């Protein structure tokens, strides 16, 4: 972040992209304060606080990338892929005197995820997850308002015990506690198998200067530099 700022980047926090329109080759990005957007209900008209006139736009809105793209007036909705959400919960192991693992353990992948695997935090905390829980669809405004449900239901531990015991049979009852949850944006739904990220430029949607990033789930973080380089080549003029 410091490196980016020292090269002239301005980060704009607490603001939300609520739409865009296109005139000629110019993109007009509609931006409002996040607080205002949160208060907006489904019936009120969204009037942006400001219009930005950028040369290039990379829609990297993660879970909301498809919702944001659908709010771009002038984009062909047919190019926006169906979007699915798979919540992944983690459970932590209550601390034991002798940690049972010294390294990561990955089981055979399951439909929609890598399987409930073992991760060791830098402080030695052991966590298991994430599992795969397909969420109901969410409407575009709720998505942009970030109304996703990150609750970790303690009851899900019941499903974790048998999965973990496949590689850690001596796991004791009552030794798991709820950790946290994350949500994967997916471009393939339940039972449809794996689908790769979609990095969508002008050749797909016809709008110069716009790149949409859809379905950037794991390993999106690991791949972030490669994705950025690829996007830069798409946008280099
Ligand atoms: C449970 C789980 C485990 C994972 N494990 C791994 C792993 O082990 N390795 C790995 O490489 N990856 C992993 N990932 C995937 C990784 O987290 C993502 O691929 C990565 O975070 C995607 O980065 P992003 O910048 O595209 O999107 P995000 O990190 O989702 O960032 C999107 C940003 O856009 C903002 N935003 C959204 N809507 C708007 C709007 N309308 N206006 C302005 N801003 C907006 C959001 O606030 C957010 O800051 C995991 C993901 C999950 C859920």
Structure description:
This protein has 237 residues and is an alpha+beta fold. It has two domains: 2-82 and 193-235, FAD/NAD(P)-binding domain; 84-186, D-Amino Acid Oxidase, subunit A, domain 2 (D-Amino Acid Oxidase, Chain A, domain 2, 2-Layer Sandwich), CATH 3.30.9.10. It is built from seven helices and twelve strands. The chain has helices at residues 2-6, 34-39, 65-70, 140-144, 157-165, 202-205, 224-235, and strands at residues 15-23, 26-33, 50-52, 57-59, 72-73, 84-93, 117-120, 126-129, 133-134, 176-186, 198-200, 210-214. A hairpin with a 5-residue loop joins strand 7 and strand 8. The longest helix has 12 residues, at 224-235.
Extended strand count: 12
Number of domains: 2
Distance between the termini: 25 Å
- Name the CATH superfamily assignment of the largest domain: FAD/NAD(P)-binding domain
Measured by DSSP, the beta-strand proportion falls in 25-35%
- Class by helix and strand content? alpha+beta
Order of helices and strands: HEEHEEHEEEEEHHEEHEH
CATH architecture of the largest domain: 3-Layer(bba) Sandwich
Number of helices: 7
Radius of gyration: 21 Å
Major pleated sheet: 5 strands, antiparallel
Helix amount, in percent?
10-25%
**What is the CATH third-level topology name of the largest domain?**
FAD/NAD(P)-binding domain
Low-confidence stretches: none
Mean pLDDT: 93
Ligands (ions, cofactors included): flavin-adenine dinucleotide
Top CATH class of the largest domain: Alpha Beta
Shape: elongated
């Amino acid at each position: 972040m410091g490196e980016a700022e020292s090269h002239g980047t301005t980060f704009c926090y607490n603001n939300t992209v609520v739409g865009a329109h296109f005139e000629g080759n110019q993109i007009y990005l509609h931006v409002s304060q996040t607080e205002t957007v949160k208060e907006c209900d489904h019936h009120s008209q969204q009037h942006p606080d400001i219009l930005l006139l950028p040369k290039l736009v990379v829609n990297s809105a993660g879970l909301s990338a498809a919702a944001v793209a659908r709010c771009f007036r002038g984009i062909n909705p047919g190019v926006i892929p169906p979007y699915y959400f798979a919540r992944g919960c983690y459970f932590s192991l209550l601390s034991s005197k002798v940690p049972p693992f010294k390294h990561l353990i990955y089981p055979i992948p399951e439909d929609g995820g890598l399987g409930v695997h073992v991760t060791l935090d830098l402080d030695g905390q052991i966590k298991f997850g994430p599992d795969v829980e397909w969420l109901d669809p969410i409407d575009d405004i709720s998505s942009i308002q970030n109304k996703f449900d990150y609750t970790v239901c303690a009851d899900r531990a019941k499903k974790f015990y048998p999965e973990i015991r496949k590689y850690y049979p001596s796991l004791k009852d009552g030794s798991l506690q709820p950790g946290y949850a994350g949500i994967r944006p997916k471009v393939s739904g339940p039972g449809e198998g794996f689908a790769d990220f979609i990095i969508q430029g002008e050749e797909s949607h016809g709008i110069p200067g716009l790149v949409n990033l859809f379905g950037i789930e794991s390993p999106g973080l690991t791949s972030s530099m490669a994705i950025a380089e690829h996007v830069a080549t798409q946008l280099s003029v």
